[in-house]
Amino acid sequence: MVYSGDVLRVFSLGREDLIASKLYAYCDREESDLDDLLKIKPTIDELNSLYLWLLKRDLSEFWPMRVESKWIILLKRLGYEK
Questions:
Q1: In the chain, what are the domain boundaries?
Q2: I want to staple 13 with a disulfide (CB 3.0 to 4.6 A). Which of 17, 21, 42, 74 is the partner?
Q3: How far apart, in Å, are the Cα atoms of 53 and each of 1, 12, 17, 71?
Q4: CA distance 82 to 5
Q5: DSSP E strands: which ranges in the chain?
């Protein structure tokens, strides 16, 4: 919780949820989400823990190939080699 008052409570995504959200958006869309991920600097363990989750987000036959191609770019940009 970010804030709690008498009539208002404000919640925020946790780090893992934020990374997951940005990963999905990056694979589904394009570059602005990559920039956000680079700023967040997820660890390789954080990314790997979300990989299978990410593969299940879309039923398109092309989704796994798209995720893999985007994944390679992300890992290289973060300094992690696959």
A1: 14-78
A2: 17
A3: 25, 21, 11, 13
A4: 46
A5: 3-4, 9-10
Q: Distance between CA atoms of 50 and 7, rounded to whole angstroms?
A: 35
pTM for the whole structure: 0.84
Length of the chain: 82
Mark out the alpha helices in the chain (DSSP H runs): 15-28, 31-40, 44-55, 63-78
What does R_g of the chain's alpha carbons equal in angstroms?
15
First to last CA, the chain: 36
* Residue in the block written with tokens 């990989």: 51
Structure tokens at 13: 């995504």
- Do residues 49 and 26 make contact, with C-beta atoms less than 8 angstroms apart? no
